[in-house]
## 1
Amino acid sequence: MVTGTRFSARGFTLIEFMLVIVIIGLMLSVFIPQCQRSRYEAKIGLVRQNASEAGSYVVAWAQKQAMTMPKSTEISFEDFLTGSVNHRGSSFSQSALVNHYTGHTSFDGVEKFIRPDVPIRNPFCSDAPIRNPFNHISIFDRLNDDTEVPGKQPGLLFLISNPTGGEILEKDSINELYFIYTGMASQWYGSIDATSVPGIRRGIFVTKFFGQR
């Protein structure tokens, strides 16, 4: 007697097939937003890293510029950061860096300090420009500037000056510089706010100094 195993030739029914599709769709609806959020937060982390690096370049550049000025001018590195410097008898003229995105022309001197056009190795010179991870161009590129505040694209670095202690010191005040940055289009990242002291201090701290009110 010959015996054998019978296999059912019945496949998936339409209802079973649709149920599998629904389950897959539900899984994707959970995992895809999480992946997108993780990628976005990773890019924001790079923006914060860029701000810390750019902050050190900004301060070093301002200090170097102040050292090249005649002592009789009494122009300090703070002036290069927060005020317009236009020394008579000198070809140098530089607008304040604060209240601008890094793509503004005021940051041209900082960019040249990082990546000079001369074949001499600068200790602050990177092998590659600091890039905005959202558009993959240098943070000093004109595309990283915006006439609106906050800008309409993510990853923009904006330098803020926050004077404090003026009520106590009368003439002198302590200035704190921060880089704050845009998140998704048309808003600052998270609870950062260019118009409030707590919001500014959630940005990236750059430096602190005494300055005139």
Note: The two ends are 107 Å apart (CA to CA).
## 2
Amino acid sequence: MLMLLAFALGCAPTCDQVCRKTLFDCDLSTERVALATCVDQCDRQLTLYQDQWMNDELASLFADHRRCLMRESCEEIADGVCYEGFEDLFVIDEDRAPLSEDPFNPNAAVQDTGESIP
């Protein structure tokens, strides 16, 4: 299983490749994010899933997400095709209740306050 995951992650495009496509080829930057910032944030997200959380499912989903961004057209990406089905990768979602006390660690224990979430 671990070898399969390593192979799958190894075949995924790098953060640099994905950032270059989305920022330059597709011009999808809404806030003019610098390439170095994009790559750094992407690499940090990958490290978070693989090394800190040791969450093979999220690491694999993130690899699939990067593959989608490289495979799809700029128009399809702008329409959200690579975000549908990848919602678990994005920590901040205003329409969902928080999953834990620590929004950057989905494995953290949820504290029961006795209150219901609307």
Note: Residues 1-9, 96-118 have pLDDT under 50 and may be disordered.
## 3
Amino acid sequence: MFTKHFIKHLITLCACIIFVISCDKNHGEINDFISKKDKNFGNITLSKVRTIALESSYNSSIGAPLYSVDFNSSGDMYFFDTIKNNFLVYKENGEFIESFWRTGRGPLEFQLVYGYTVDAENNLYVYDDAQRQIKMFDNEFQLLQILDVDNTQFFISSNDIKVVNDEVFFGIIDAMVVGSDWDNKQLIQSPPIMIAKIDTLSSTKFVGTYDPYLNTINSVYNRPLYDIDTEKNTILISHQNSYRFQEYDLKDRKRVAYFGYKDITFGEGLAKTRKGESKQSRISKTISESSNEKVFYTNNFIGSFYINGTEKWFDSRDLSDLRYYLAIYSRDEYELKTVFSIDHRLIGVYKDELYFIENEDPDHFQIGIYELKNLE
């Protein structure tokens, strides 16, 4: 006959075993997706390092950039002005270097720049979605090559493009689910990342599948987001309306981690857009959902930057009426450390430093540079 004391301890032991199993670090399984009410999980700080004031120039205006910045090996900053359709280059201290190119369909002209990147050799790669071309320039901004992009099967849907060695990485979506009344089950069969040889865009290969989580929500947009760790040879993948991450090994393209925690600040989509729906109607549906805008690696952390719309923003279209957040995970254990409510928009990460737009006035454009620190 078991005593009550023994049974009590047996129940406790079983509970502990269940807890250990549920916390198994096999991140290939969906076992860590939980809601978090307390956002102070780790002693992480976001510390300001310095402020950069971009030098004004008669021939340049930041205007409305892509909310993105890339860097060459010297730390020079590359912006794209979507008003003038030209590039603006600044030194790391904010000193203006050069602006170049303009609107048009010529070799040195652009219509709809969707993404750009600078490689290790300081070559600039620009994807123009209107021309369906990648234009490659050397470090003196001289045209090297123009490559035509075939969007028959897949559309380039991410604003991130990256070049590693002789390969270019795109975020893609199956062309069959773009602009149609698609079913989410069809979406998640599409690979999120395509890799091609940069010289000819040939020898394509694919990484991963869309997160099945997207099959459970009515998200408006599902473009993939990603970052690459060239030292560890891994790629981090998420999606615009997802708090979840997949990490793949780039050598064998197998998934090595699947993780993510739904903080109470992250909203899910309540309605899906339909073919022919008005722009205003589509935007109104995004108020309820968070828009994941950027994912990134640092040496010690994995992060995502997401935005929440508000009713006030829907009426004003004033960017200051949006709400900005950073979710920070440990780099090795994939554990959520904290979620920051922040005042400014994240536009880039370079050498473990986070770049935020602190002032968008073209005449007083300022970037705040911060770093994440673990005080434990």
Note: The longest strand covers residues 154-164.
## 4
Amino acid sequence: RDTFHETTVSVYGDYTQLFWPMAYAIFERRKQFEKQVESLSDKDKKQFFKENSEARGLLRPSGPPRLFEQRKKLMADFHKVAGSKKNVARIKEWYQSNKELLGTLDELRGQGALDIGDL
């Protein structure tokens, strides 16, 4: 909170214009880290990732997230937070009555973007 104004930048614009340059910058930064670690030993890589959280986030040395494999646990945690079956039903009802959300999900299904499992 104390360094918010010194460490962040606000840019106003449309995401269709801003997304691509930001994505390009992130991928270029990732390439830089890949070059830095390619010649390091396993021990040195561990130390490098320990000291550099940005590289750890961009290269994911522990592998990609596997949320679908954790689905049962995540759903159990969700039900704990949601509380009662009545609350879960309310959440489900909201999603089912949200035409814009359902339309977007149908489009994504049609494009094959949701083929990792049922939603």
Note: Helices lie at 4-7, 15-37, 42-51, 53-59, 71-82, 85-97, 99-110.
